Amino acid sequence: MNVLFIGLGYMGLERLKIFRKLKKKFKIKNFFFYDPFYKNKDKKLIKLNKLTPQIIADYNIDICVISTPHFLIKKYSILCLRSKRKVNLIIEKPYGRNLEESKEISKYLKKNQRIFIGLNYRFFQGISRMLKDIKHKKFGKIYSIDINFGHGHNPAIKKTWKLDKKLAGGGAILDPGIHVLNLIQLITKFDVKLINVYKKCNFWDTGVEDNALIILSSKKIPLITIKLSTTMWRSTFQIQGNGSKGYWRINGRGRSYGPQTYVTGKRWGWLKGKKQKSTEQIHSDSNEKDVFLRETLEILQSIKKGGDKKRVCDDKEAIKTMMLLKKIYAF
Length: 331
Fold this sequence. Notes:
It contains nine helices and 14 strands. Helix content is about 30%, strand content about 25%.
């Protein structure tokens, strides 16, 4: 197996580290890369000075990992899919800048060819446990879910593509919001309705929203709120849920957000003569350093076996999330 990395910025290098850990297990022979801006000092990493569909075929590339700015995702995805060789793609989120780009990329898929999108929050230990508990109705009828997700970027971001709507496709709602929109769809089994949207450009003043509040609803969960911000200054990730039998709280997602803790509590636990907090249980407390490893491992296993793993996000699922994204921006 030969793997090509298109883009070796932060996410591309993170994914490369994971692939190297899995090299022996999946018999990976060579690692190639294409990135005109990356200064390579690694002799085991083979540089491609040019990238065409024919070059992908000539070098027998089996997997292309695309970790580029949003405005380049469609270009390089289609370039890879146009090769005579049936390469599988791993695309870091989002699946293009908008729904139209997502659909256009998928049109180039051949039979027995796969596209995987890096919507990987389902692989966080705390979130994974939460999804299982919701599935098994641990909390009874769920009345509400509240998500608070934000960070502060850095002062230099105004000079980058990330605050240019044409290049990025959107602001906080798209990135990082795409992750939690996809997560809510998993929880509601893709049966969620948009109720209201408030989006505002408060600080950067570039026309790209830096704060947003999204209100959703589903047949089984009447109230779902998502607060997104790129001006929170202190990295924040929280999920709170309340049901007829109890509640849960998730805090953090690793790195600057702190370890991810998953805590559950029972309804009216204080009636047993204790403080409510003392009745809570901690089910997960993890630095979440292995999220990309767990996701990549399952993707490679899916490719190897040729099956359709439910835990990984493919292009069909990602398109559903991009459809919701389009509705939110059009609201």
